[in-house]
Amino acid sequence: MLIVDGVSKVYQSKVREKLWKTTYKEVKAVEDLSFQIEPGKIIGLLGMNGAGKTTTIKMCTTLLEPNSGSITVDGYDAVKDDRKVKSLVNMIAGGERMLYWRLTGRENLNYFGNLYGIKEATLKQRIDLLLKEVGLEDAADTPVEQYSKGMKQRLQIARGLINDPKYLFLDEPTLGLDAPIAKHLRSYVKTLAKEKNKGVLLTSHYIDEVEELCDEVYILDKGRLILHDTPERLTASVFKENSLHIWVPALPNRTQKELEKLLRTYHAKMEIKQSIDLEEIEIIIKTEQEITSSVLALLSNHQLTVLKLVVEQPKLEDAILHLAERRIG
Amino acid sequence: MLQTAKATFHRNMISMIRAYPWSFFLSHILSGIYTVLFAYFTYTYVFEGVLDSRFSNYAGTNDYLSYVFLGGALFSFAVSTLMNVSRSLITEQREGTLEALLLTPSSRKGYFLGNVTQQITRTLLEFLIILIFAFLLGLQFKHIHFLSAIFIWFCAVIGFFSQALLLGSVMLYFRDTYITQNTLFVTMAFVSGVTFPIGYLPEWVAPLSWMMPLTPALEAFRHSVLEGQGLAASGSQLLHLSFLSFLYLIVGSLGIKKTEKIVVEKIFS
Ligand SMILES: Nc1ncnc2c1ncn2[C@@H]1O[C@H](COP(=O)(O)OP(=O)(O)O)[C@@H](O)[C@H]1O
Ligand SMILES: [Mg+2]
Fold first, then answer.
1. Which fold has domain A240-313?
2. Is it true that domain A2-237 has CATH number 3.40.50.300?
3. Sign, CA torsion A256/A261/A262/A268
4. B49 — contact with chain A (CB < 8 Å)?
5. Per residue in B180-229, pLDDT tens?
6. pTM of the complete model
7. Residue ranges per domain, chain A?
8. Residue A245 Cα, ligand 1 centroid: separation in angstroms?
9. B203: exposed, middle or buried (Cβ count in 10 Å: 0-12, 13-18, 19+)
10. What region does A40 belong to: left with phi over 0, alpha with psi -120 to 50, or beta?
11. Domain residue spans of chain B
């Protein structure tokens, strides 16, 4: 069990005001955060840019020390017993860093394996296995600088697994990946948790990704935990509202009445906006149900031309604003 | 620790063979050769081979050319070692591999040991090339006490290595390679008795001379190479050198440990 207990992290950064004068700016990146990761479970950490996700991961992987609070991994303290903790955890970040570009894929894994003190025979076997699992067998002996972005990222995954970590941290792992590769990665992460009993923490911008993979979700906003729930309940309570935007040249009274009647039966809310030049009207409908086709049918019965139609999925940003408001209110 | 050292040695060897900036190698050799040539021409044409009477007094020898040649060679060896070791962590930071390295429970001592031993394979070659060049211009080896020269050279490596740890943590802290390094190298060239005995220097410079491992290393090295003396003759220099090595090793290791943490906090990704 990995236990994060009341952890806070403050960054101090220098701000140069004038040539000779610098002041320190403090950024509270994480505040009083607590959560746990059990082996075999996938935890999702959601939040907007700057919410404190990466900082949290760096603390859990001993790269940063918290200013207060504690992190223990299977009973070992992440600051005092950092070496022990390092052997139990690993981290995979999106992007192409954290690899030696002049070395081949195999040489990279071999180097990192040695830094973890893994015995030669075990290491050799593990490297072959990992290269196979991430589909880099054929490129194993090619220098990394010749890899494509996707290949580098896959090697990055193999590096993250080289010490067979019990807890794995994934920082926006699918950022910038092509859809099929991202999909493959997701299913692989699932296997790691469910079949190899690893505890996984995954950060993401994308609610879909979290919904697909995670057993539990935590939402961070400005370093604070604002929600902890299962993904099902989360989407049911926060992410259910789609919004439908329809632009029409005009909206006669009769049509509007009919539309309102229809929407009432679905408990949907409607808002009407007129463009400044009075040329078009935007109808915004917020609803939890799938009513696009009924609305369009009604409009076409009334001989109205639809100029444009946009269906907006619920956004994480909206949900966070919504939750933050609810907390204050 | 040894596993890390071995792996790091191997890793560096591979990268060196694959993509070493050979211009570095050349520039190290050239700067050594320039020092030697500069001394040669100054001595031959400016002083016309006539020495200040104080020289033999301060230097303990009349052979100015050999004196300078050895100074130039060991100086450029010191610079190479200092540069290579101290740059290793900041290079990891610049290439984006520092975090991956710090994620592992590897021993930092092993990491540096691997770095320095690998780099010695190259810097030693530079050193020998400069010595051969100096030999052609008149460096005298006829008195050399071989075993003690090698032993002193080895102690000097440890001294430079320890100093490099300290230099490395300062560079990592300021994330600067150029200014810090070059200030140190210029100072070293001036105060460590590379081209002239430190006796010529004003008194206030003495503490600076004393702080450089190159100073006692060079004195002892000259005793054994030029005067053919055994280790006993260089007892006080070796003691001085060991003291500095020990001091810098401790301060440098602590410094590296501290700055590593600070640097990760400064990495914005
Ligand atoms: N090295 C740093 N120095 C100063 N401030 C930082 C540093 N890293 C992150 N921050 C700040 O801390 C907050 C959290 O950042 P981060 O953990 O990277 O968020 P996320 O990963 O959720 O986008 C942000 O306000 C960010 O600007
Ligand atoms: Mg981040």
1. Alpha-Beta Plaits (3.30.70)
2. yes
3. positive
4. no
5. 889 999 999 999 988 888 888 898 999 999 999 999 999 999 999 988 88
6. 0.84
7. 2-237, 240-313
8. 35
9. exposed
10. left
11. 2-268
